[in-house]
Amino acid sequence: MSKFFSIRDMKMHKKLLISYLIVVIIPVSIIGSFLIKNTKDIVLAHINQTNEITLRQMDNNISNVFRSYFKIADDILTEAHLIDMLSREYRSESDYLRAYSDVISDSMARLQLKMPHSVRILFFTTNHTIVPDGNMLFYADENVASQDWYRDAIEAKGSKVVSLPYIDHTGNKVFSISRVLLSTANSRRDTVLKLEISLKDIDDLIMEEGKNKKVYLLDGSNHIFTLAADDILNDAYEIGDVLNIECPQKRKIFSGNVCMKLEEALDVNGNLEGWKVVSVISPDFIIGDINKTVMHSIIICLITIGITIIFLFIFSYKMTRRLRILTDSMNRIMKDNTFDADTLKTYSDNDEIGELSRRFKQLLEWLDRLISEVYISEIRLKDLELEKRKAEIKALQSQINPHFLFNTMESISMSLLTKGDYETCEVVRSFSNILRRSIEWDDDLYPLENELHLILDYLKVQKFRYKDKLSYEIAVDERFYHVLIPRFILQPIVENSIYHGLELKEDTGFLKIATRTCGDDLELTVEDNGLGIGKHRLKAIQSSIKNAENIIINSDEHESIGLSNINRRLVLYYGREYGITIDSLKNVGTKVVVRIPMQIDEGEDSYV
What we know:
Blueprint: H1 2-8, H2 12-76, H3 80-87, H4 93-114, E1 119-125, E2 137-139, H5 142-145, H6 148-156, E3 161-162, E4 166-167, E5 173-181, E6 191-198, H7 200-209, E7 214-218, E8 224-227, E9 260-265, E10 276-281, H8 283-336, H9 352-372, H10 375-398, H11 402-419, H12 422-439, E11 445-447, H13 448-466, E12 470-475, E13 484-486, H14 490-502, E14 509-518, E15 521-528, H15 535-546, H16 563-574, E16 579-585, E17 589-597
Parallel strand pairs: 1-2, 12-14
Antiparallel strand pairs: 1-6, 3-5, 4-5, 5-6, 7-8, 7-10, 9-10, 11-13, 14-15, 15-17, 16-17
Helix pairs in contact: 2-7, 2-8, 3-4, 11-12, 12-13, 15-16
């Protein structure tokens, strides 16, 4: 409790600073930390998802390329005649040259034409009766036989073998797919096929899909087959090395210790078993933009909080300074034991402090006047006022309760209904509804439907009075029922039409209420075929409506509700562009138009 009271005893500028700390800085810090963590997780998840999709696409592309290479190697097997010619031992060199000229050269040329430009076909044989051409046909001497790709092809016994990339005689990086071409002849001089393929094809696929990440193609022994990007991490490895990169389980964004490693096996059944594509995203790529954005956000927040604190200091000082001056003035007045209001400093500001100073000065003036001039008279006046209020309360208490009237009229209505006088019963109920709505005034605006119910009850009562002398029509589209209008806007106009237009008419009078849209506004029309208004009187009424004067339209025997009062209410609600207009011809009829904005009741609380 002592801490609580110590906070209450603090100066106001300190309370403002503490409230700012509690209400602004702490929530902002908590929310900011939460947003930073969420942003980091979302970014990492997005990067991981994108990397998985990219890796699968890259795996699919590489697998398709290798399938095309393997298909080339398989298609060459269909050249059985060529394979037999290369495996056959010839009696003399001239025999071979004839065979080369007739079959071998044409078959090799046809194969070369079908090959992509990045694929080179080579045949290696141990058949001493064949003369190498130095282009596609070579002798497998001891140097060739000692190479890994050749030994692997011999050991594979017809299966396809993919070698690690190497530098060819032109200085380009290539790799080979080799296999033994088994002859159907009885010779054991089998030929080894070697497809020498540019590594650039694989590198281009990886570079295209593997931007901003390190991608490795590993063979079945986890050896690096290709390095498509030259970066810091890749500089630590060479083609043929075993890849050994481990990413930590815990990701520490700000320490830079972030790493994502994904693997995808190649989908080439039986030929590249164990081969896979490995993607490693470096820490700089993952956290670089995140840290930059976070740091910028923190700096902006700190600058904003710092500027806000400075303005808060200035604001609190200026505000509490006025309070201190006002307090000093009050203390001086209490010390001098005087009610001289002129000694109190007041402020013209419209805030609470200015209002407090002015009110306190008014209090001093009132006390001074009360004590020096009208103390006793004020007491007497208060006594008289109290007696007057008591009398008014008693008078109000003596009035008939409106509910008594409603209940009585309901009893009359039920009695008429029991006796079968349905017409009179309906009129009594309509009159009761009119009386009830005239007393109830919960809101000044209500749906148009409610006003129409009131008018309908009023017209039923008038119809009962005038019988066949009065007919009416309410042509209002139901879609306008929920447009909000001020209470008792149309009913007085309808009343004017009946009393000043239709009542003195000899034949049957007709009254029509209609609506129409005008842009975003709604126009309500009350039109009758009554006696109409003369030109001079009509101009006077139109002028009074336009000038928003209080005027009551008078006839020889009746008074009507002032149209200018209705117009003034509409102008106060909606502005001078809205209101009523009246037009009339003597002995023809009168038309009153009410224009209001199309304001819909969202609650749609129509009268029931």
